[in-house]
Amino acid sequence: MRIIMMAGKLAWVMFMVVSLAVRSLATVYTVGDASGWTIGVDYGTWSASKTFVVGDTLVFNYGSGHTVDEVKQSDYKTCTIGNSITTDNKGKTSILLQTSGTHFFICAIIGHCGSGMKLSVNVLLPSTTNNSTSPTSFPSTTPTPTPTATSGVYPTTTTGATPYMIPDSVVSSSRSVLSIFRGGGLVFAGVVFVNLVHFL
Prior knowledge:
- This protein has 200 residues and is an alpha/beta fold.
- It has helices at residues 2-24, 43-48, 73-78, 168-183, 185-199; strands spanning 28-30, 52-53, 57-61, 68-71, 86-88, 92-96, 101-106, 118-124.
- It is built from five helices and eight strands; from the N terminus they run αβαβββαββββαα.
C-alpha cells in the first residue's frame, strides 16, 4: 500500500514539474522592442529575427490614437479596416499565441496600416526534437466565449472565431511566476527535489 501511495505522489510531482517546465519555455515579445507599436518601425524586419511558438505572448505598447487589431490575411494585405477578429486601443495589449500558423495585426486608424503599422508573425508548434516549419493547429476541446471587455490578452485563432480574453491582472501575475521559473530553473529543480523527498 505504501508503494502505491509513493507512486501516486511521484506521478503527481512529475506531472507538475512537466507542466510548469513546458509553460516556462514561453517567451514574451515586446512588439517593436523599445520603439513599440507606432508608425515608422519596420515590423517585418523585427519579426523576421524572432522565432514564435505556441504559448508565446506579444505585447503591443502604444500611445493614444492607435489600435491593435488582429485581422485575416486578406485584410492585412490590403489594410482593410472594419473586419477585425479582435481589437484593442488601451495603450498596452497582450496577445497570447495559442495556435500555430501566421497571425496578422494592423493598426486600424485610417492610414496607419498603409504607413507600416502592420505585423505578421509565423507561429510554430513547440518542438523538442526538430524545428518544424509546417503550421498546424491545436485541436480545441472547449467552445470559445465572446470577449466582454477590450483590455487583456486576446488569444489568436486561425479559424476566424472570436477568441476569449484574459484580464491584464491575470497576465501580469502569470508573467511574474513564469519569470521566476525562467530565471531560477536550477533553484526550482532543487525545490521540487526537496518536496519529492518530503512526500516519499
